[in-house]
Structures are given as C-alpha cells and as structure tokens.
Amino acid sequence: MKLLDFFKIFCQSIAPINEVKADGYLPSFWEDDYCQIEIASFENKEYILKTIRQISDLANNSRTDFGFTETFGRGQMPIKTYSKEIRTYYLDKLLTEFEFEKAKSINYDSHKILNCETGSIKAYGFSNFTIFFDTQDEFVKNIWLSISLIVSVRQYDLIQSALYCLGEECEMVLIDWNSLELFDLRDRTQIDKYLNDYWK
To answer: Model pTM?
Structure first.
C-alpha cells in the first residue's frame, strides 16, 4: 500500500488533540514513522537484503556535506503481511498476554488524535515501546513499531517475549530502515541484539 493511500484511509478518524483527555497510555505516531521499523514476513528476507544494499549504495553515492542528493522509494514487499491472514484478535490476544496496554487513541503528528476504537490503526505497548498495526476487515495489513530507551528489566523481557512469539508463530522479521538492519524474530539472540541498543 502506498503511504498516501494509507493516510487517506484513516484521516476521517482523526480529531484535534484538545478534544481528548490526556489520561493513560497515549502513543505518538509521526507520519514519517510509518513502517520505518517494520515487522514483515520472513519470506521477504532476500528482497529486504537486496533493498538494503540498494539503499546503502545510493546513500554512499549521493552523500554530500549537507545530506543526500537522491532519495530511494521503497516498493511493496513481495509477500504482504495481509496475505498471511493474521487476525486482529490474535494479535490483540498475543500483545495483551504480554501486558502491552491497548491504546484508545494515538497522538498523530503531535496535533491530531487518531481514534483506535473506530479507526483501522491499532496500538499496543508502553510509554517507550509501541507496536502499531493497520487492519482490513479482521486481518492485519502492516505492522510497525516505535521504540525509545528501555529502563525496566521486566519491560525488556515482555517486549522480547512478545517479539519472539510473533516471530515464531507467524514467521516474521524486523527491519529497521533507519539503520538498514534486519533481525529474525524467531531468534532471541537477534532480538536481544536489536533491543540492547535501547537498553539503559
């Protein structure tokens, strides 16, 4: 799905931020965050590695003192998450079993509120780690996350276990397009390697 199409779908379910009470868990979601840290099917591994090489080559060849002269538009994954038929109630159950809080709303681009209960975007997590996913009917379309410093051992263990369970049961990988790194979520060592960068 193109980014523009994605935002057309949920723009109807946003409200000004001053209309929502600031109580409880309110994850933030910036437009540029969409699928930047992405969870996708393991079957896309070769495509992901090829794309990482292409982005890295382009970045090296277009780097200047002021940034980059070119940008890279990522295409769609060959195997879409939607095609794996992961049901929304399955992901809801998995995440809540690991004590992820279910968000009622999302702070979108710092000035709008996205309603998770009526819209197609869902969010589960903690103040420093959120798993987002969008839905179509009862199936999950895309999964992505936001992460910041993790300071609690208990929270670290819950996040690691949830990611591992998702990797094992659905055969998923995590791609951080910011750092151009790929992690197999079926491997606890690789999950630890990723999370340790945020462990304080």
So the answer is: 0.85
